[in-house]
Write a structure and sequence with these properties.
- By secondary structure, the chain is an alpha/beta fold.
- The protein has helices at residues 38-52, 75-78, 83-89, 93-99, 116-123, 150-158, 160-169, 175-181, 193-205, 209-224, 227-241, 245-256; strands at residues 3-5, 14-19, 22-27, 59-63, 68-70, 105-109, 112-114, 126-130, 134-136, 172-174, 186-188.
- Helix 1 (38-52) packs parallel to helix 4.
- It is globular and about 60 Å long.
Length: 265
């Protein structure tokens, strides 16, 4: 797959490139174990939003490096803040913005994925993990709790008992255990984790764009709505897709036994 750089942007803490129809955003604070400072999160969200709005991109991958996806939030930045400063700054809104992206986002995780890093990975739609990946919410050890959705998303994924144990003890789990619990999609050798995530993203990016977006919206509705409301979202999106050119092309291609030509219309 050809690799080309995205148009140069004034990013200091993330690296962005395209791989075909996949946009890759890499967290780039290796000396700080990719700690998620507010400036870094602002750049990450900006990069993902731009890729989300680009018709040439069908899916995105967020990654760190082999040693750490992200070891947590930037504690030095947070240590002296007051409750009012946290409230008025709205820094955690940046995490929410990741969850509102229309296109699928895959987290490619290796090494430490703790605290805010674990919360960021869970905000993504899928997680591909290396065998060295470790996941946890250790905030209890510094006198706080997860604040970017960790208590809620971890409980939805792992169940109350396991989430309670991880959050209250601050302990972590390895990649294989995370796979067994349903936190990650697949576990691969460390030298393959990014390649595997890009392959998964490329496969998704090759699907009809409107159907991908509507499927993501409908699946996300499961956690956000009661069953009846979620079923209504699914049904609405299903019906609407029958007005798209891609639906007509997809069904015609199936009948004619040929590859479809998706237009995203």
């Amino acid at each position: 797959m050809a690799r080309t750089a995205v148009k140069a942007l004034p990013y200091e803490h993330v690296l962005v490139r395209r791989e075909g129809r996949v946009g890759l955003v890499q967290i780039n604070r290796p000396k700080a174990m990719n700690a998620l400072s507010t400036p870094l999160m602002a750049e990450l969200v900006q990069a993902l939003r731009e890729l989300d709005l680009d018709d040439a991109i069908g899916a995105m991958v967020v990654t760190g490096d082999e040693r750490a996806f992200a070891a947590g939030a930037d504690i030095k930045e947070m240590a002296g803040v007051t409750p009012m400063e946290l409230l008025t700054r709205g820094s955690l809104d940046l995490w929410d913005a990741v969850g509102r992206l229309a296109k699928p986002v895959i987290a490619a995780v290796s090494g430490f994925c703790f605290g805010g890093g674990c919360e960021l990975a869970m905000l993504c739609d899928m997680i591909v993990a290396s065998e060295t990946a470790r996941f946890g919410q250790p905030e209890i050890a510094i006198g706080v709790i997860p604040g970017a959705g960790g208590t809620q998303r971890l409980t939805r994924i792992l169940g109350k008992a396991r989430a309670m144990e991880l959050v209250l003890t601050g302990e972590s789990i390895g990649a294989r255990e995370a796979l067994a619990y349903g936190l990650v999609n697949r576990v691969v050798p460390v030298e393959l984790y990014l390649e595997e995530a890009l392959k998964l993203a490329a496969k998704i990016a090759g699907q009809p764009p409107l159907a991908v977006k509507m499927a993501k919206e409908a699946i996300n509705a499961v956690d956000q709505m009661h069953l009846d409301e979620g079923l209504q979202v699914e049904r609405k999106n299903f019906y609407l897709l029958f007005s798209s050119e891609d639906q007509k092309e997809g069904m015609a291609a199936f009948v004619q036994k040929r590859a479809p030509n998706w237009k995203g219309k």
